[in-house]
Each structure stands twice: as C-alpha cells, then as structure tokens.
Design a protein that fits this description.
Layout (H helix, E strand, L loop, with lengths): L4 H13 L4 H11 L9 H13 L17 H13 L10 H4 L12 H12 L18 E4 L4 E4 L5
C-alpha cells in the first residue's frame, strides 16, 4: 500500500523544503533511492520521478550506488524549474500540482512521522484467508504445470 495523497504531499514537501537542513539530508537521499511505487497518486509519482532523475549525481562507474545532489543551488534550481514550467515534470501536470513544492510540511513531520512514512511506503495489505467453514469435503490442492493447473486430491480420506 502506497502513501495516500496527503502523506505523499508531505513527503514531497519534505524533499523540496528541508534539503538545506543537515539533519534531513540523509533521509531525503534515502527517500530518493526508494521506488516510485510508494506514491498512490500518479501526479505525485511523476513529481517524485522528476526530482529523482534531476537530482541524481553523475556516476563514473556503473556499479557505484546512486548518489544524490541534495542541498544548495542545484536542488533549488530543480525545484524552481518545476514550479516555473510544470510540463517538464510530466504531460498532465499543471501549476496547481507543483505549487506546494518548496513549502515546509510543518512541525508534525518529525522522526516519528518519518518512520511511519517508511512503513507506509512498503506496506502491503494482507490477503484474507478463506474461511474453513466454507470448504466441505476433502481439500483439493492446485498444482500448476507449464500449461494448465491440475487439482490433486489427498491420498487419505
């Protein structure tokens, strides 16, 4: 389950407003290394991908882990470019979609929020197990072969 629209907005505000704060730089770099599937809103996902690709530092070797240019003029320039010309972010992105970039998310975004956000980024909803009351008779188990599924009955009654 990905971040909802409100939590996604706070995450993007965090990336674009606290990049000059040394206490948040490593956390912002960690966020940029996460997969974009953590955002449920398509527009927020597009903004995140824009930030991720434009803040990626040049790597001399392919095996090196990704590094990010977080802080200073470069980060500010990427954010201002997105706010000035939203079409750089994506096709369906409007000025209203990127207006919040650069604004602080508020005091409620702290270490506890950060931990909850990381859990929400990767949390998968649990699938409901079928009730044992609904199954009657011997249980069948299904085995997949290359072409079709085959049902196998248990050996004992």
């Amino acid at each position: 389950m990905a971040l909802n629209a409100e939590e996604g907005r706070r995450a993007l505000e965090l990336i674009t407003s606290r990049f000059d704060d040394w206490r948040w730089r490593k956390k912002i770099e960690k966020m940029l290394s996460l997969p974009p599937s953590g955002f449920s809103d398509d527009k927020q996902r597009a903004i995140f991908l824009y930030l991720k690709t434009n803040l990626k530092a040049y790597k001399s070797r392919r095996a090196d882990p990704d590094t990010w240019m977080v802080g200073g003029f470069v980060t500010r320039e990427v954010i201002e470019r997105a706010r000035f010309n939203p079409k750089l972010v994506g096709v369906g992105i409007t000025k209203e979609d990127v207006d919040f970039l650069g604004t602080d998310p508020g005091a409620e975004v702290d270490q506890a929020w950060w931990d909850d956000m990381l859990v929400g980024w990767f949390e998968e909803p649990e699938a409901e197990a079928p009730s044992t009351d609904e199954v009657e008779g011997p249980a069948l188990r299904e085995v997949r072969t290359d072409s079709q599924p085959v049902q196998i009955k248990p050996d004992h009654p």
